[in-house]
Amino acid sequence: xxxxxxxRSFVTRPRLTNRVNRFAAETFGAFAAWNDARVTRKSLSxxxxxxxxxxxxxxxxxxxxxxxx
Length: 69
Description:
By secondary structure, the protein is mostly helical. The protein has three helices and no strands. The chain has helices at about 10-45, 50-55, 60-65. The protein is rod-shaped and about 80 Å long.
């Protein structure tokens, strides 16, 4: 009977893969956050001053709401 050992240990490869995956996830997350802020800013900017007042905002609040500061 033949046995094949496939339990090799790669020390450097998983670390590199983890770094690449983390970089990709952080980059995608930053892009998604930027896009969400852009869409929110655009939507709020379309509202009239009266509509913004109805929801308790003013024009100066749009940037802080969009970026969630």
